[in-house]
């Protein structure tokens, strides 16, 4: 990830444009964070960096397509990632540990950790409840079959469990 450290001395007054589109880097992020997520079309982050006395303004976009498990049925849900963001990364005060900051120091030289910025924006761009389809019926809470592809007899049995037992008997005799 070291090569995605941008030294502040490399950012000119008019700003600097950087890209993070290496599929290996994105795959490594997903692996490191044990995220159940596959890349369908390449993830690409484009950043514009502008320095200021107190830190660095980061303006960017993140695009791509991924699959994650559907929050109802656990089958693949295709998610289009399309995010715009703007953050100000502040220099930490001397002697304090700014865990929130994406600015890292090596030999007292400040760098922007571009990888960390992109990863954070990616995580923020993920849907909280991804769905394979807006009409996903999910799994049967009783027997666990995927109701998008199968039917089961549990659904009409909601309510009185004694009735459920009876229905089972009737089905069996028929
Ligand atoms: Zn689903
Ligand atoms: Zn069922």
TrEMBL record:
InterPro entries found in the cross-reference section: YceD (IPR003772)
Pfam family, one: YceD
Protein name, as recorded: DUF177 domain-containing protein
């Amino acid at each position: 990830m070291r090569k995605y450290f941008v030294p502040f001395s490399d950012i000119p007054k008019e700003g600097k444009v950087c890209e993070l589109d290496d599929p290996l880097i994105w795959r490594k992020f997903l692996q490191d964070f044990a995220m159940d997520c596959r890349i369908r079309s390449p993830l690409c982050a484009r950043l514009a960096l502008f320095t200021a006395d107190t830190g660095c303004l980061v303006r960017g976009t993140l695009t791509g397509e991924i699959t994650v498990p559907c929050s109802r049925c656990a089958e693949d849900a295709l998610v289009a990632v399309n995010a715009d963001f703007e953050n100000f990364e502040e220099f930490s005060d001397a002697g304090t540990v700014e865990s929130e900051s994406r600015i890292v120091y090596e030999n007292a030289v400040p760098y922007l950790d571009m990888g960390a910025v992109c990863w954070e924006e990616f995580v923020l761009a993920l849907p909280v409840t991804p769905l394979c389809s807006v009409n996903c019926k999910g799994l049967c809470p009783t027997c666990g079959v995927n109701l998008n592809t199968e039917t089961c007899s549990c659904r009409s049995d909601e309510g009185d469990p004694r009735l459920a037992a009876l229905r089972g008997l009737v089905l069996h005799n028929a």
